[in-house]
Amino acid sequence: MICLTHLEVCPCCYHVSLKVCEFDEPYPRVEATCLCCGYSIKDRALSHYDLDFKNILELLSKKQIGQICVDNLCGSTNIIRLIDEGSYKEFRCLDCGAEWNSKELQYAIKNVKKVWECLKKEEIEDCVRAQEGECPICKNDMGHKRNGYLIEISCDLCGFHNVYDEKIPNFDVSQIDCKEYQKAETPG
């Protein structure tokens, strides 16, 4: 696990004093601590999550056979089958318009089972590698959202989302003068 560190502007005190550590594995993770005001944010490693793999697999199986919408935000059961050719099927949700096929879901199920086995064997670094914008559990291409310096992972396919801890200073940071760190221009 390699940590690339650099300094950025702290979102609390606006000094260039936020030490950001970007880890490359087991999946994109970030830890950041302000050397001036003490602000910090970090996401929890996947091994500290309480994931219910049986529920995740059950949810993906229902999506694979077209019982519920592929998008967790919709969750509709108003689904039509577009193509039915042997084991390959395509579906469309009549409520949100999402389209998916059984092959995509089979790939996601295979990846979830692989991650589950790795967690059982405590070999998480060997299989939880995600590309940018990819869910570390099912490998769904979900894009990525930023929450400050963290990449927020929220997969609409398998339901995985990362958990992070943020500590905001409980004092007036505008009065801090850290002479060793340059102050950025205040926004606005």
Give keywords.
188 residues; alpha+beta; 2 domains; 5-stranded antiparallel β-sheet; 3-stranded antiparallel β-sheet; 3 helices; 10 strands; 26% strand
Describe this structure in words.
- By secondary structure, the chain is of the alpha+beta class.
- The chain folds into two domains: 3-44 and 164-175, no CATH class; 51-145, no CATH class.
- It is 19% helix and 26% strand.
- Strands 1-2-3-4-10 form a five-stranded antiparallel beta sheet, with no helix packed on it. Strands 5-6-7 form a three-stranded antiparallel beta sheet. Strands 8-9 form a two-stranded antiparallel sheet.
- The radius of gyration is 21 Å and the shape is elongated.
- It starts with a strand and ends in a 21-residue tail after the last strand.
- The model has no long low-confidence stretch (mean pLDDT 85).
Task: Give a short synopsis of this structure.
The chain is of the alpha+beta class. The chain folds into 2 domains: 3-44 and 164-175, no CATH class; 51-145, no CATH class. The protein has 3 helices and 10 strands.
